[in-house]
Structure formats: C-alpha cells, structure tokens
Amino acid sequence: MVDNQTELIEEILDLDSAVQHQLRNSWPESWLQINLPLGSTRALLAIDGLNAHTPGRVADALGVSRTTVTGLLDRLEGEELITRTIDAHDRRCFVLHLTEKGQTLVGEINGRRREHIRLALAKMDSESLAALRQGMAALAAAMKTGEPVPSK
C-alpha cells in the first residue's frame, strides 16, 4: 500500500509540474500586457499573496537581498502600487500595503491565470471535472489543516 501511495504521489507531482509548465508557457503573453518588470511584479504578488508586509519578508519570499528589494519597492511605490507606512509597534520598520491601483493589477494578473485554467477545464468531460474537483477539495483541505484527509 505504501509503495502504491508513494507512486501515486510521485505521479501527481509530475502532473502538477506539467500543469505548472503549461501555465508558465502562457505567462509571456499575459505578462507583456503588464507594464512592470518581472521582479517588481513578483514583489507585488508576494506582498499580496504571501502576506509579505515588510521589506524583509518580501526579500525572503523572493530570495533576494534587502538592498535589491528596496529598489523593487521604490519602483512599486513610484508606480503608486504600494504604500509604505511606519510600523506602529516598531518605528524602525515599514509596513507595506497595496494601493487600490496595486489591488487592481494583482486582480488582473490573477484573472488572466484563472481564465487560462478555465479554458483548459472547459475542454474536459464532466466525469474528469468531478474527479478533479474531489481531488482538489481533498488537497485544499489537507493543505489547510496539515492533517491527512480520509478517503471516501
């Protein structure tokens, strides 16, 4: 049983890699429509999706130095996509927030990705969609709780 489970997990991970590869192949077209360098866009998405609300957390999330992230944040602030405010608990630190313009841009990026996936899902039959839905629901639950999800 363990060998079968291990094999299934490896197959699923391989399939996930294939899906991610296909999504990345669609990025150039989507990203060309965004007038922001890739590093700045990644920083914006880290602030939003990873709750990286300090420069240090953004740097850690992107795997770059604090000096590098300062330049990225300067650009985002110059484009009016983020604001930096002094942390009320530690006046030496800044807290990052998306502006309305930044939230709109993140929504557009996420919308393009979602639409790309929607078009692929529309090519699948109902039985496959139902199986995928069940599997994705179980995966989401397992990731949320960190505990195994019993099978039906």
Give structural notes.
The protein has one domain: Winged helix-like DNA-binding domain superfamily/Winged helix DNA-binding domain (Arc Repressor Mutant, subunit A, Orthogonal Bundle). The protein contains six helices and two strands; from the N terminus they run H-H-H-H-E-E-H-H. The longest helix is centred in the N-terminal third of the chain and has 31 residues, at 2-32. Helix content is 70%, strand content 7%. It has 152 residues and is mainly alpha-helical. Helix 2 crosses helix 3 (55-62) and helix 3 (55-62) packs across helix 4 (66-78). The two termini are 17 Å apart. It has a two-stranded antiparallel ribbon. It has helices spanning 2-32, 38-49, 55-62, 66-78, 100-121, 126-145, and strands spanning 82-86, 94-98.
Question: What characteristics describe this protein?
Answer:
6 helices, mainly alpha, 152 residues, Arc Repressor Mutant, subunit A, two-stranded antiparallel sheet, 70% helix
- The helical percent reads 55-70%
- Uncertain residue segments: none
Give the terminus-to-terminus CA distance. Answer: 17 Å
* Strands in their spatial order, largest beta sheet: 1-2
Structural class: mainly alpha
**What would you give as the CATH superfamily?**
Winged helix-like DNA-binding domain superfamily/Winged helix DNA-binding domain
Major pleated sheet: 2 strands, antiparallel
- CATH C-level category: Mainly Alpha
